[in-house]
């Protein structure tokens, strides 16, 4: 890889490292990216292994690997044992501990959460900022403040910033509509890149969580992740790929009506939306306001509302799993039990019996891990 002045990156003592923006321009679609993808998928491959896999000469691969070692993207991991004469092969892998991603989740109730995460998924630092009802420009300023705090605490190079927001987000990192943050058409990616001078990815929070579940924890090719927090949203994976839709609204189940007129009013201004029943603040409030004998009924009602929305999607998409995240522990069993019962009343028995309806094992960190994966993909070109 070459720096913008044409000099070989990392060549010679004191040569400057490429910036993350320069890495992003150099890597995706290049031979460097092809090698990184192989290491990401298989790990611990030698230069000869890589050369055979990509159809390049060993000398070319050795030169490319040398550049990426100097940039801190690849590291030698171990020498293989050999029988007989000859030099032992040296295995390589992505240097996942050498870089940090600033990961931010804007979806929780009452606070914004962030972390510094390395490319192996290890969380090094956590920060949060109370929202204090901030909306619009005030919410943007709190987001930037949280990112600044995390950057100041980084003890190694930062690859980029990943931000996950509730609402509709396009592929250019614009928040087209977020009722919970009062953002409409906000160019969030551009705002953050201008402020930090770091490559930035902005995505819907549920989509990012679904990608993390797919990449790190799930075995299914067709799944939906339902994220319950300040709002309710879903990320849909079919044939292993994220479904966004032409208007980037795929998975926006929170504003599907599940009741008639007179239901609870939603932040979008309509009545009877799923989010008005199932969002965590609304659900907690309803449980706390109910007599003890009625509390399980409140939770079962929420589970049935979820099933009303899920049934046509599970039936039409052939989903293997529905993974739920964001519920507090006492709510999980009654809600999911009610959801399964209500699905059984709406779908063929074999569809419900084969559906894995479960809670994500990762919990609140799933969105942050998704933010890290988005940055790694955008900057390094690995999927």
UniProtKB/TrEMBL annotation:
<protein>
    <submittedName>
        <fullName>ROK family transcriptional regulator</fullName>
    </submittedName>
</protein>
<dbReference type="InterPro" id="IPR036390">
    <property type="entry name" value="WH_DNA-bd_sf"/>
</dbReference>
<feature type="domain" description="HTH marR-type">
    <location>
        <begin position="31"/>
        <end position="79"/>
    </location>
</feature>
<dbReference type="Pfam" id="PF00480">
    <property type="entry name" value="ROK"/>
</dbReference>
<dbReference type="InterPro" id="IPR036388">
    <property type="entry name" value="WH-like_DNA-bd_sf"/>
</dbReference>
<dbReference type="InterPro" id="IPR049874">
    <property type="entry name" value="ROK_cs"/>
</dbReference>
<feature type="region of interest" description="Disordered">
    <location>
        <begin position="1"/>
        <end position="20"/>
    </location>
</feature>
<dbReference type="InterPro" id="IPR000835">
    <property type="entry name" value="HTH_MarR-typ"/>
</dbReference>
<dbReference type="Pfam" id="PF12802">
    <property type="entry name" value="MarR_2"/>
</dbReference>
<comment type="similarity">
    <text>Belongs to the ROK (NagC/XylR) family.</text>
</comment>
<dbReference type="InterPro" id="IPR000600">
    <property type="entry name" value="ROK"/>
</dbReference>
<dbReference type="InterPro" id="IPR043129">
    <property type="entry name" value="ATPase_NBD"/>
</dbReference>
<dbReference type="InterPro" id="IPR011991">
    <property type="entry name" value="ArsR-like_HTH"/>
</dbReference>
């Amino acid at each position: 890889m070459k720096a913008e002045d044409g000099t070989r990156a990392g060549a010679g003592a004191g040569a400057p490292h490429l910036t993350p923006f320069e890495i992003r321009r150099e890597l995706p679609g290049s031979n460097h990216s092809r090698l990184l993808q192989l290491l990401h998928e298989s790990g611990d491959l030698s230069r000869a292994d890589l050369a055979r896999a990509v159809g390049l000469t060993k000398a070319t691969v050795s030169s490319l690997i040398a550049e990426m070692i100097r940039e801190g993207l690849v590291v030698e991991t171990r020498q293989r044992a050999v029988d007989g004469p000859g030099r032992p092969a040296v295995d390589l892998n992505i240097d996942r501990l050498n870089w940090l991603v600033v990961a931010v989740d804007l979806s929780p109730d009452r606070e914004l959460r962030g972390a510094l995460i390395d490319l192996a998924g290890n969380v090094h630092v956590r920060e949060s900022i109370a929202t204090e009802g901030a909306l619009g420009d005030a919410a943007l300023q709190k987001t930037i403040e949280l990112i600044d705090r995390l950057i100041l605490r980084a003890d190694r190079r930062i690859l980029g910033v990943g931000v996950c927001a509730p609402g509709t987000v396009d592929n250019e990192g614009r928040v087209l509509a977020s009722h919970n943050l009062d953002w409409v058409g906000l160019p969030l990616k551009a705002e953050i890149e201008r402020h930090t001078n770091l490559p930035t990815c902005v995505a819907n929070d549920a989509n990012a969580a679904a990608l993390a579940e797919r990449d790190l924890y799930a075995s299914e090719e067709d799944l939906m992740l339902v994220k319950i927090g300040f709002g309710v949203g879903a990320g849909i994976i079919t044939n292993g790929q994220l479904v966004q839709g032409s208007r980037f609204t795929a998975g926006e189940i929170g504003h599907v009506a599940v009741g008639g007129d007179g239901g609870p009013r939603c932040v979008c201004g309509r009545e009877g939306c799923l989010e008005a029943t199932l969002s965590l603040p609304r659900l907690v409030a309803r449980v706390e306001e109910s007599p003890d004998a009625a509390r399980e009924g409140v939770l079962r009602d929420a589970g049935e509302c979820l099933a009303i929305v899920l049934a046509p999607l599970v039936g039409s998409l052939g989903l293997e799993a529905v993974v739920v995240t964001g519920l507090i522990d006492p709510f999980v069993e009654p809600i999911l039990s009610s959801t399964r019962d209500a699905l059984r009343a709406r779908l063929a028995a074999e569809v419900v019996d084969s559906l894995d309806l479960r809670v994500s094992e990762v919990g609140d960190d799933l969105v942050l891990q998704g933010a890290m994966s988005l940055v790694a993909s955008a900057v390094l070109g690995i999927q």
